[in-house]
Amino acid sequence: MATTVPPLGRTPLPGAREGRDPDRVIKRGPRRLPAEVVAATQRDRLYDGLVHTVAAKGYDNARVSDICQAAGVTRPAFYAQFEGKEAAFLATYRHGTTVVVRLMQAAYRDEGDWRSGARGALKVLLDVLAGVPAFATMAVVEVDAAGPAARRERDRLLAEFRQFFGGARPLPPLAVPHDVLIDSIVGGIYATIRQQVAAGAVQRLPELLPVLTYFMVAPFLGPAEAAREAAAVDQGGVVTVAPCVRRPTDTH
User: Radius of gyration (Cα) for the chain, nearest Å?
Assistant: First the structure.
């Protein structure tokens, strides 16, 4: 059964649209939009432009002019929003990962116990990344090239995933500090996702749900019960995100 995730606050994940989305063209004329509306529209277009540019060229090779071209936004408008490429990357990363985490939280809350909630949150993560490959590449792979501040943001994000293990308790005799165990599980899941994204297999991420479910719950449920959890995964569910659209040629 397909699950459609509505964009939170009507804000799709960065990279789900093209920066030159015709619906966001700022039209000239006597009825000028308020300055804050123009700025917000340009910022959203720059988020999308940055994601597509970094995914295509890599962070190191992406230039501000490339991002502006992809977004249909002028360089002065870019620098009115961000101090430079690193600041734009950080803002886009924070914005996008906030959207993803909130979608995961919604899936977690919809379930009756932590194991189903954690599995639901993991499913959303895999489906959303698979649905927006450019964002997956930018946020999972290219974050490593974006500097120490970006890597600190990534580490903060991974620590935030502890919330999805609130009711989990390891089986004895596993005498490991709870946070260490959770961080190890999250780190292993993240490393597996990163490997797939870096290999260009982003759209196959949902296929990892059974094995990652097993890995995630085995320390708490034991191998036999974890195998049953993995076998119960519904591999037919798909999370849909806002589609990309054609680029017009105008620049504002």
Answer: 20
Alpha helices in 132-235 (DSSP H): 133-136, 148-160, 178-198, 209-221, 223-231
Rounded Cα distance between 205 and 183, Å, is 21
List pLDDT tens digits, range 93-151. 999 999 999 999 999 999 878 989 999 999 999 999 999 999 999 999 999 999 999 99
Mean of the pLDDT values across residues 182-186? 95
Q: Which helix (H) or strand (E) holds 239?
A: strand 239-240
Instruction: Please name each of the domains of the chain with its CATH number.
Output: 3-26+35-240 (1.10.357.10)
State the Cα–Cα distance between residues 5 and 248, nearest whole angstrom: 27
Q: What is the token pair recorded at 108? A: 């977690």
CA distances from 188 to 33, 180, 185 (A): 47, 12, 5
Phi-psi region of 147 (alpha: psi -120 to 50; beta: other; left: phi over 0): left
User: Residue 199: CB partners within 8 Å, gap ≥ 6?
Assistant: none
For residue 4, the surrounding DSSP H or E stretch is strand 3-4
In which residue are the tokens 């993803």 written?
100
Q: Residue 37: helix, strand or coil by DSSP?
A: helix
Task: Render pLDDT for 201-226 as a digit per residue (tens, 0 to 9).
Answer: 999 999 999 999 999 999 999 999 99
**pLDDT confidence bin for 22, thresholds 50/70/90:** low
